């Protein structure tokens, strides 16, 4: 009997150069380390995927601090990563270059393929580029199941962050329609743990969003506001039959 693949998704750490840096009254380094320790204490985790927005102040030191958080937490699971709209892909590649970090954008385990697709653009909004379509088309095995992970959300969440969502959602929907073996999509960016349906002509695919390790957005505000929820992460259990079980976890700091 095959063992299910268990994935922890983290997102939106928004670190500063200093450990004492606060984002809307939250010490984001302490929040990140609390989440990492909670993940480490889970009974079974096979991998971690970080879905972007590592930095808030765009400093090299913030990337180094991200690595330090994993070192201090003694995380030895493979950690895969994507760039968010705040990040520079070159700095991610430079600083997240040694274990436990892995630069691959395709993870294969049992009957599952996990695709990490880049959506960073020149603006805070996201773009699903043709290069990502070509990459996905080249690796997707229609006889397996896929979970797509990205930074930006591909369907409206119903609050201010929609101004910075995916700019070409129709192209993304066409991509999903062309690959019926894709079971679900996961993203960061919106600082909430929601389940949002993406309605396609012949089926619906769930978009699972990830709570941030930094702050959770107040969905009633017309801009960035901390709603006071603790930092969090999302767990996925991917069974070989194609079933997805997912839980949003919050961590008291």
From TrEMBL:
Pfam families attached to this UniProt entry: Metallophos
Domain annotation Calcineurin-like phosphoesterase: ranges: 7-192
Keywords: Hydrolase, Iron, Metal-binding
UniProt-recorded Gene Ontology molecular function terms: hydrolase activity; metal ion binding
Keyword Ligase recorded: no
PANTHER family in the cross-refs: CYCLIC NUCLEOTIDE PHOSPHODIESTERASE CBUA0032-RELATED (PTHR42988:SF2), PHOSPHOHYDROLASE (PTHR42988)
Family the UniProt entry places it in: Belongs to the cyclic nucleotide phosphodiesterase class-III family.
Descriptive protein name: Icc protein
Annotated organism of origin: Colwellia chukchiensis
């Amino acid at each position: 009997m095959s063992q299910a693949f268990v994935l922890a998704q983290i997102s939106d750490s928004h670190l500063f150069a200093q450990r004492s840096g606060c984002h809307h009254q939250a010490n984001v380094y302490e929040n990140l380390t609390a989440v990492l320790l909670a993940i480490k204490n889970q009974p079974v985790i096979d991998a971690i995927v970080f879905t972007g927005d590592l930095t808030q102040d765009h400093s090299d030191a913030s990337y180094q601090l991200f690595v330090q958080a994993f070192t201090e937490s003694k995380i030895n699971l493979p950690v895969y990563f994507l760039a968010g709209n705040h990040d520079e892909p070159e700095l991610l590649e430079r600083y997240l270059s040694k274990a436990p970090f892995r630069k691959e954008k395709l993870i294969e385990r049992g009957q599952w393929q996990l695709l990490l697709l880049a959506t960073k653009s020149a603006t805070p909004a996201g773009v699903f580029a043709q290069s990502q379509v070509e990459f996905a088309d080249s690796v997707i095995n229609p006889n397996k199941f896929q979970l797509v992970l990205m930074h930006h959300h591909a369907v409206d969440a119903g609050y201010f962050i929609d101004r910075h969502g995916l700019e070409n959602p129709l192209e993304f929907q066409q991509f999903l329609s062309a690959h019926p073996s894709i079971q679900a999509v996961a993203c960061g960016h919106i600082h909430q743990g929601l389940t949002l349906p993406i309605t396609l002509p012949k089926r619906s695919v769930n978009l699972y969003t990830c709570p941030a390790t930094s702050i959770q957005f107040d969905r009633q505000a017309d801009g960035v506001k901390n709603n006071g929820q603790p930092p969090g992460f999302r767990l996925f259990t991917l069974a070989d039959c194609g079933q997805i079980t997912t839980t949003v976890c919050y961590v008291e700091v």
